[in-house]
Structure formats: structure tokens, C-alpha cells
Amino acid sequence: MRSRSPSLRFAMASWLVLAIGLLLAPAAWAQSIQPLDRIVAVVNQGAIMASELEQRVEQARSQLTGRGIDSPPDQTLRRQVLEQMINEEIQLQMARSANLSVDDTELNRAVRSIAESNNMTLDQFADAVEADGLTLASVREEVRRELIMREVQQRQVGSRVNVSEREVDRYLEQQGATQGVRYRLAHILVALPQSPTSDQVNEAQQKIQRLLGELQQGADFAQLAAAESDGGQALDGGEIGWREAGEVPSVFAETVPQLDVGEFSQPLRSPSGFHIVKLLDREQSGQSASGQDQRAQARQALFQRKANDELDIWLQEIRADAFVEVRL
């Protein structure tokens, strides 16, 4: 009998990060941007407008500044932001086709969680948002979008993941020195399409080697990720956050434990493309479990790892299947 799948915690475009970024954004950009009646991208039957792109570019620039990361050149930043918006639009179209929605109870709970994470009451959060030239209603809609995309990801990717008892046994045997260890990671991705040609592989290899050379010459990892990475976390400086040892993506699993804090890897190949991973920090949680609890934790960790791997593949698949026309 197949066990119930653990819940997914996808890393891409976290609504919490997004909302905090909105909170920290300067008021000026929200007031200065004028709507532009020009389409910058057609996505299937939908469209992305220039005014929407400019708003998101300024938001991304503010978020990078808040992280202490220099923004890429304007053209590069626009390209990165537009690609993110295209991926979001595809997922939102899928959600509409499936009649997915987020009710007000779930949305209120999410917004309240964001306020609490900023050590604010909901009223204080609303005041802070309005002081930055935004409205609580607009922030709520952004959070609603993120929750809907997370639901799409859970449905589409969760159904593709299964963890066997044999895999749990093997994981527990191999865990060893990494038991209770958490890693804070960042990565740069040079993506490959499905079934790439030899020329596409060679081009991606050349690019990842160029990026590796820049890092070895002292380039800032976060700045390079923001400008060059094809990963969903590019505009977060490539950071994918804290991961339990068992939740580290498969492509990084053997390499990360060997890295010193602050060190980055040689290029690694996965079905998604070529990666460079950097270990930002590590910590020992000190928590241990036994018996059935230990197996449950192992199953959750393996499920999350496989879900993260599948998510990257799925995002490439839906992007490849969509009709997209960029008009920058």
C-alpha cells in the first residue's frame, strides 16, 4: 500500500520572500511608473505588459539591494525578470484551466504569517505597506498568486514522486556523518533543453566554464547568479536556502558535504543543465530521532529531494511546451 505523500515545500518564488520584498521596496517606484500600453511578451493566449515588467524590475532591483547584491545591467535584469514572469504566467494559466483558487481563509492565514515574520500585527503590516506607497489589497493579490502556483506545483510534481521502503533503508544506512546537518546553499544554473543537441551541450559547457573562471578570479557569486543563472532563484542571488542533508538536490548530494563554508564546486551536470553550487553555511541541528520517527523523517527528506529534482524538470517541460513570443 502506497503511503501518503508528505507535503511539498517548493523553493521557487516564495510568497514570503516576495511579500517582504514588496514591503521593503521604495515608495517612489510605485508612484512613478506609468502604465505603458505595450505588450512585451505573448504567453499562449495571455500577455505581459511593459508596465507590469517595469514594476517587477524595480521590485527585483530593490530586493537585490536589500540583500546587498549589486543589480545586473538594466537589460540583463529585465531579461531575468521577464523570464520569471513568463514561467509564472504559464503556471497561472494552468491553474485557471484546472479551476484552482485560494479561498480568503487560506489567504488571510498566509498574510498574517508574513506580518508575524516581520514582527508586526496585521494592522501594523498594512500601515507599513501603505507607507511604502502600496496597498494591502495589492500585496494580498501577489500572495494569492504565489499560493496558487504552489498548488499547481504540488499537483503536477507531487504525483510524479514516490519513495520506496528500500530507498528509505538505503538512506538511513548512508546518512552517517551527515545526520542532523543542515546546509545553506546557493547555485548557478546554465540550463539545457530537453534532449539537447551536441552543439547546445557544448555551448552550455563553455558558458559554465566561463562563469567558473569568473568566480575563480574573484567575481561575487550572488551578483553572477543574478545576472547569468537560469535558475528560479537567480534574482535571490542564486540562494536556495537551508536544506536538511537528505533534502539537498541529488546533483549536489555528494559534493556539498565536501565543501568548506564559502567554497563553490566545480560544474555539475543534471538533466536540467550545468550547475555550480556554493556552501554559504552549515549547522548541526542536534536533533535525533529513532524508530518510526526516524523513518518518517527519512521518507520526508527523500520525498523533498526528489520533488525538488522533478520541479526543475517540470518547469523546463512546461516552458518548452508553451507558445512564447518576446517583444522587448
Helix count from the secondary structure assignment: 11
The CATH class designation of the largest domain is: Alpha Beta
Computed CA radius of gyration, to the nearest angstrom: 20 Å
Q: Low-confidence stretches at least 5 residues in length (pLDDT < 50)?
A: 1-7, 9-32
Adjacency order of strands in the biggest sheet: 4-3-6-5
Structural class per helix/strand content? alpha+beta
What percentage of residues falls in helices of 4 or more residues? 40-55%
Q: Estimate what percentage of residues fall within beta strands.
A: 5-15%
Biggest beta-sheet profile: 4 strands, antiparallel
Number of strands: 7
Describe this structure in words.
This protein has 328 residues and is α+β, with helices and mostly antiparallel strands. It has two domains: 39-161, Orthogonal Bundle (Triger factor/SurA peptide-binding fold), CATH 1.10.4030.10; 181-284 and 293-313, Chitinase A, domain 3 (Roll), CATH 3.10.50. It is 53% helix and 13% strand. The protein is built from eleven helices and seven strands. It has helices spanning 15-24, 27-32, 50-66, 74-97, 104-117, 122-131, 136-158, 165-175, 198-216, 221-228, 291-321, and strands at residues 39-43, 46-49, 181-191, 239-244, 268-270, 273-284, 324-326. The strands form two sheets. A four-stranded antiparallel sheet has the order 4-3-6-5. A three-stranded antiparallel sheet has the order 2-1-7. Helix 3 (50-66) packs across helix 4 and helix 4 packs across helix 7 (136-158). The longest helix is centred in the last third of the chain and has 31 residues, at 291-321. The chain is globular and about 55 Å long. The relative contact order is 0.16. Residues 1-7 and 9-32 have low confidence and may be disordered. Keywords: Chaperone, Isomerase, Periplasm, Rotamase, Signal. This is Peptidyl-prolyl cis-trans isomerase SurA. It holds the Pfam family SurA_N.
